[in-house]
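Supplementary notes (optional reading)

For those who missed the lab, this is the record we used. Protein: Sel1 repeat family protein. Length: 624 residues.
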Amino acid sequence: MKGTKFSIRKIRNIPNDPKVVYAKGSLYEKMGKIEQAIDAYKQSALDEYVKSQYKLGEIYVEKEYYNEAEKWFNMAYKNGYEDAAFDLGNMYYKLDGYEYALYWYEKIASLGHLQAQNNLGTTHFKLKDYQRSEKWLKEAANSNLGVACFNLGVLYTVLNRKEEAYEYYKKGSVLLNDDCKYNLAILDKKNDEKYTMSLYKQLYKSGHIDGCFNLGVLMEMEDNLDEAKKYYEKSAKLGDEKSQYRIAYIYDRQESLSDAIEYYEMAIDKNDMLSKYRLGNLYNKENDIEKAKLYYQMSANDNMLEAKNNLAGLYFEDENYEEAIKYYEEAIIDGCKVALENIGDLYYKNNEIEKAISYYLKNSTYISCQIKLGNIYEELENLEEAIIWYDKASKAGDAQSSYKIGCIYEKLSNKEKSREYFHLGAQQNHVNSKIHLGRMYFEEELYEDAKKMFEGPANEDNIYSQHIMGVLHDIYYKDSDNAKYWYEKARSKGCIESIYNLGQLNMKLNEDLEAEKYYKEGLKLGNKKCEYMLANVYYKRSLDMYSMLAIEGYDNCKEIVEIMPDIDMNFNEFLLAPFSLQEKVDENEDEEYVPKYILEIKENLEDMLRGMKLEMEIDDEKES
């Protein structure tokens, strides 16, 4: 600090020679003391020191004091400083003062100033004077100015002179102009993919934003997400919001949430709507509801209908129905079909059935709404309407709706119709439809068909189906091994009828001790049939023992045998288990009415590829 103070004191004592005063201003400028620098430059400039005049022009352009800038640049130009004309041209070009820009560029373009020639051609292009634009751009391009090659390529592209455009893009790429390489990459994409990728990789190395972005998209299209991240990252760090969004979305899908949040927030700082929406989704999935609301609200303010629907969903779950309805209605106005169903669910949950019906009807091409309409009309016992809506859903492929119609017709004793719809459900592997249809076939003694129906549900642990499979193998196929297998399956779940039938089967197989075991098990469970059969087993065993003793002439056994009646034990009798269905067939069956969130939107990556750059560029770097 002491050294700095010493320097400032020394500066104040510098004599008034314009060159020395200019140096004083330059030192002030380097120290960030702009007002002191201006004072020094003015003192020197008024003594006709051209460098100070030019410096003042530069400072005033930066401060956007354009009248002052023009005054000092003009003075510098009159004193022989040609670059001042170039700067004045650039200043007017950026202010859309193209006629003034032409005036200043022309002063030095004719002297061979390449950047001025390029900028003059660009200005004529802006004014749609393509002939003069071509003249000046060609002059600069033929002197190997890369940016002029690019601009001339743009001119020829606009004029549909494709071969000439390609020629100058090619020349500019040799001169290392990145925009020429970029346009070439797009032009050659279909014809020479290898060359295109080579150009894009060169653009990646030099940090060309659009080139990096397109390369990222191409990698993402091939599902090469790690490579895509690499290319997006470069353009993202250069401030490209779409690159920030894409890399965030990749991290999101890979569940690298802290990285996803970081890049989403970068893009949100540039007001990227999709980043707000996706960050809302991320926080919603992580159950950070307040943050989810914040970002959905931001995206909803950008008029994104999916965000409005999701924001409404959070209010729905909070039971803030007024806010939920507000955002659902906004989403509906914007064309969100999901919101129609969600607001219907909200009204249904609040027992406003007529309103619920009215919204489901507006969305009646959706299977889920058809099912809900069927459910409501069934609850209202309006079976005719219920059948109409379930039938629509059934025809659209919903197996549960086919099953429900089958059940309604069964209640109405319409056997043929119920069979028709149970068959439809069974064809789609609907478990309970198979169980119903299997029972029908069993009752009609169509045992092969019954077996086909019960096999699937039995393998999904439906007790009734397992028991009936045991009965079929036991009684009709005489396959004791398979009968035992299925009875045991049902027995393990407490099916008393299977326990009884196992006892009967073992008696038929003369496996009395095994039979006794099952009858005892049934007795413990309070089954009178098992108790009766166990008594029969004991009676038979007693009779056999008395008979053996009678043969040996033991005591009064002969008299006992003579008075003991013969009992006709029917081991072919079997029990059928009560009809029972699979508890949960469909994940959506009897689901609570909860809001549907739109967590994915279709994004066509190919449509995201950026096209050719057709905006000409001025060169504001001075000739060295």
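If you only remember one thing from this example: Residues 431-563 form a domain with the Serine Threonine Protein Phosphatase 5, Tetratricopeptide repeat fold (CATH 1.25.40.10).
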